[in-house]
């Protein structure tokens, strides 16, 4: 889980983490300490957050009914602890901050906090469908593992406008979002990964509310580097989703920030080639090859591009040449494919001679008989 802790409360977090395993010792009820998950899923005194009864909650301490509960898109702060059925602690955070709907955390926590009031303490039982599903989470959460949480809603507020935050905070939050995107990508959750990268890009900017740059030169350079990483990752996720136009757009955005980014050049050239824009694709791939002349993938894509341009399977092929010979003109590197030599086979000639000889012999025999 990506944890969005406020650095100003770090001392408080360390103090909490040094306490016993139970965050809420006054609410160490039997359900938390020993009851089987099967019994909890069937318990009558638990409420259902979802209709499928796979996400359930039991209130231990009511919150403030005068304060509106959190809703989609708001930022919340919670104190929580999660355990497996054998009560092994696998998650613990005394100051977890996340935005509902941005999937900074598992779906179970997002769904639960929207049913809570500020100050409320509750037990949350989540089937794996609302937690870490088939893959689990290495190394501590097995596949298909349900989880039990102690959870308290500490605060609710509107999501801050990124343009009003200090640049250092934007970089911190943007990188946390990017890391969350990487987490989803590794799990092959490409839609969630793309969403996380897009949120990160919204935060990673040095623009102020009036549109002017408010960062120092060093901050602008740091933000640019992180934007390049985010955009490259976003393009890769878009490709996995077969959103090719969006992938091309993200790759072009990378090149606007870093014209010599080989990954973006290669991806852009490949996508342009697939779209039939061969001239621009050739220019982009040539540039990528000049930057990394030994990369086999670029050579392979150029070979494919040349075949597409010719529109024939019997086309010119791209062959790698030493880097010292590389120039602007690709023609010297295009070597015609070998063609089969034409001509009459010697076997055909021999067969024809035998047929002719046989005809001659037959004719002589018939003549002698007559």
How is this fold's topology laid out?
Elements: H1 10-17, H2 30-33, H3 37-42, E1 47-48, E2 55-61, E3 75-83, E4 89-99, H4 107-113, E5 121-126, E6 147-157, H5 167-186, H6 190-203, H7 217-240, H8 244-257, H9 262-274, H10 278-291, H11 296-310, E7 317-318, E8 334-335, H12 346-369
Antiparallel strand pairs: 1-2, 2-5, 3-4, 3-6, 5-6, 7-8
Helix pairs in contact: 5-6, 5-7, 6-7, 7-8, 8-9, 9-10, 9-11, 10-11
Describe the protein.
Helices cover 44% and strands 14% of the residues. The chain has twelve helices and eight strands. The chain has a six-stranded antiparallel sheet with strand order 1-2-5-6-3-4. It has a two-stranded antiparallel sheet with strand order 7-8. A hairpin with a 6-residue loop joins strand 1 and strand 2. Helix 6 runs antiparallel to helix 7 and helix 9 runs antiparallel to helix 10. The N terminus is likely disordered.
Largest beta sheet: what is the strand line-up?
1-2-5-6-3-4
Poorly predicted sequence stretches spanning 5 or more consecutive residues: 1-20, 313-342
Oligomer description: single chain
Pattern of helices and strands: HHHEEEEHEEHHHHHHHEEH
Q: How many helical stretches?
A: 12
Radius of gyration (Å):
33 Å
- Helical residues, percent: 40-55%
Task: Output the structural class.
Answer: alpha+beta
């Amino acid at each position: 889980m990506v944890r969005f802790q406020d650095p100003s409360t770090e001392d408080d977090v360390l103090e909490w983490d040094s306490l016993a395993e139970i965050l809420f010792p006054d609410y160490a009820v039997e359900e938390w300490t020993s009851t089987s998950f099967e019994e909890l899923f069937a318990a009558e005194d638990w409420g259902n957050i979802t209709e499928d009864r796979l996400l359930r909650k039991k209130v231990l301490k009511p919150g403030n009914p005068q304060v509106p509960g959190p809703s989609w898109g708001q930022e919340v702060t919670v104190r929580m602890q999660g355990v497996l059925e054998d009560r092994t602690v696998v998650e613990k955070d005394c100051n977890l901050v996340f935005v509902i709907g941005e999937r900074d955390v598992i779906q179970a926590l997002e769904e639960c906090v929207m049913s809570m009031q500020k100050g409320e303490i509750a037990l949350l039982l989540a089937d794996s469908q609302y937690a870490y599903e088939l893959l689990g989470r290495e190394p501590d959460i097995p596949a298909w593992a349900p989880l039990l949480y102690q959870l308290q809603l500490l605060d609710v507020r509107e999501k801050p406008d990124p343009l009003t935050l200090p640049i250092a905070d934007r970089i911190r939050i943007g990188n946390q979002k990017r890391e969350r995107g990487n987490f989803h990508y590794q799990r092959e959750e490409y839609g969630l990964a793309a969403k996380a990268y897009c949120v990160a890009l919204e935060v990673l900017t040095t623009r102020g509310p009036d549109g002017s740059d408010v960062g120092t030169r060093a901050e602008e350079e740091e933000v640019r580097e992180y934007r390049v990483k985010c955009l490259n990752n976003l393009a890769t996720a878009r490709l996995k989703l077969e959103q090719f136009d969006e992938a091309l757009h993200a790759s072009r955005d990378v090149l606007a920030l870093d014209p010599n980014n080989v990954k973006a050049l290669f991806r852009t050239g490949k996508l342009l080639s697939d779209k039939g824009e061969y001239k621009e694709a050739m220019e982009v791939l040539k540039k990528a090859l000049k930057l990394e002349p030994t990369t086999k993938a670029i050579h392979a894509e150029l070979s494919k591009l040349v075949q597409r341009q010719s529109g024939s399977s019997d086309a010119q092929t791209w062959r790698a040449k030493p880097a010292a010979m590389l120039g602007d003109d690709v023609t010297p590197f295009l070597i015609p494919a070998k063609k089969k030599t034409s001509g009459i086979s010697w076997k055909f000639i021999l067969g024809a001679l035998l047929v002719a000889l046989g005809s001659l012999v037959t004719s002589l025999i018939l003549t002698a008989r007559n």
